[in-house]
Amino acid sequence: MDCDMFVNNPQVVHQAMCLLLGSEKDNDQCRFVQYPEVFYDGPADQEVILQEYMGKGMVGIQGPLYEEMGRFHRRKVIYGKLAENDKLVREFGVSKEFIKSACDALGGNTVDCPPSNISDSIEAAYQVANCDYKSDTNRGKRIGWLYGSKTEDVLTEIMIHKRGWRSYYCSPNPPAFLGCVPPGGPVSMTQQKRLATGLLEILFSKNNPIFAVLTGKLQFRQCLAYLWVLIWGLHSIPELCYASILHHHQLELLT
Questions:
Q1: Could you give the CA distance from residue 213 to residue 224 in angstroms, rounded to a whole number?
Q2: Assessment of whether the complete model's pTM goes beyond 0.90
Q3: Of 22, 73, 122, 236, which has the maximum CB count within 10 A?
Q4: Domain parsing of the chain, residue ranges
Q5: C-alpha separations of 245 from 171, 178, 241, 252 in Å
Q6: pLDDT tens-place string over residues 152-169
């Protein structure tokens, strides 16, 4: 959850757990639950196409798109694959508590998961959250959010669906999370630039969803949906041309 969001529905955790721990048939396939991104001070038509049409439509394929907030993951997705004992430090770093937590999650051990000492867990959390902790580890490569794009959330989602896993969409009433839209002007333009740049970085990289179809288990229709999102930054070119032609036509009518 981002710093400009807050929990609006007290049942949000319960609802996500119901989906993640649902029927035995789907239990092992669902890897994260996504809630829609809703703004309390945004326009009435905020992201209608992305959420109401693309998001819900993709539920029938492999699952909805990643949004910037409002999702619950299985820890197995974040921790990757269980490594050999001599490679655990390389994968997860030097924190013994973090290594044990990751191994318990990947091995399905839920008996000894609750920490025996809360203060030790807090200290370990500070250690793992340190900026220097990820050095010389596989964080960003196979562990956690994948690096290589300014929109690392979309890149991570593509890799999840590439493995053949699914995601679920939950849109409760009242909304699970609420946030505020960025103020107009430079702040909004900077955010749009970051999103467009990050999506194009994925489009023109080895992580392109077309390659995920050829080398992984990403479905073709899911790939088409991803491509529609990734070329979002290029929409400005035909839109600018259309606006220029329309403006020129209006000037001719006035003269």
A1: 10
A2: no
A3: 73
A4: 5-80+144-254, 81-143
A5: 40, 39, 6, 11
A6: 888 988 988 998 888 888
